[in-house]
Amino acid sequence: MWNTFKYSALSIVRERSVVLWVILFPLILSTLFNVMFKGMDDTAFVLPTIPVAVVDGSEGAAGEAFDATMDALSDDSEGDALLAPVYAKTADEARDLMKSGETIGTITLDAEGWPSLELSPGTGDVGVSMEQVKRTVLADVVDDFCRSREAAEDIVKNDPMALANPDVVASFSERGDYTSELAITHSKTKEYVRYFYALLGFAALMAAMVGMNAVGSIQPNVSPLGARRALSGTSRSRMLAGAILASWLVSYLALLLAFVYIRFVLGVEFGGREGACVLGLAVAALMSTSLGALIGAFPGIPLNAKGGVLTGITCLLSLFAGLYGTPALRLADQIAREAPWAAAINPAKQVTDLFYSLYVYTDLEPFFQTIGVLAAITVVFALVAALLMRRQRYASL
Length: 397
Hints:
The protein is 62% helix and 6% strand. By secondary structure, it is mostly helical. It is elongated and about 100 Å long. The two termini are 22 Å apart.
């Protein structure tokens, strides 16, 4: 068994397909992901400057308060101006600016300096877009000004001595934050990390190629090496055990290499639970080995064709794990909500959830639940593979 394990491991790492798809491809793909998604969350809560057309129809000093507000909100001395006002002479001119897309809305001051707001419809928006956020913020700015002015006029009317308090006066011009970041999970959530977790799910399924090749190497009707091994004095069960153990070790080391690169070179967070990740990778490697053994045990199919089948299965299941961008992530989430059984039998999704549960949840119960699901999938794959292997008989070699 030891010799089988030793030479199986050596033959596995010499396979070009294993080196390319199991070891190098996850590293290359994760590097591309890092280039694509780097800095994505750094700008998630940054609101760009909002262009707005302003028509000042106020008389005398009636519009001075609003002018002061616009000056404060458009001050770009620190590079954080909220508004970029474009002054127009007439309402029609302001609407033309809005219709052409140069501004988000139009603010018109009446003779007494009270603003009215007209926003662009934004009919082409899908979901919650940045343009919708801009329109919401612009409406809040006008509402805040009107409420502050009403409060100031009410104070002047009922308690003018309160204006002697500088804190009261300062409260009229306070500028609040329109977006805030709130963390209610174990880690400060970053959307892009899910792509790397899905990538590890993809890598785990691709690692099944190792187990598939290892099983093929002991089948007499698949490879010359298998024919020679069948004529040796080693029992078939011992050869299979050695090949499976070598496959698991190589798969585990390949996944561990991808994890170390993603975590410590690319800097992707895993919730500070790297030790649990190492355990999860061991279970994922065991699942991939059993999947590879299952595909490799199917009789009557050439080994190259089995590789194509494995690649197709991997790409399909990775779609439902959210690997292929935001639409795929939404599809994966929808399936998990509406058909949880479909997500449960998808090994790529389960490996993805393995790391996501460590990243999001404060306790480890969801992590170990996912470990249990992966273990059950592994047992099913292994039992079917063993059944197929036992039923194979060879008339001649």
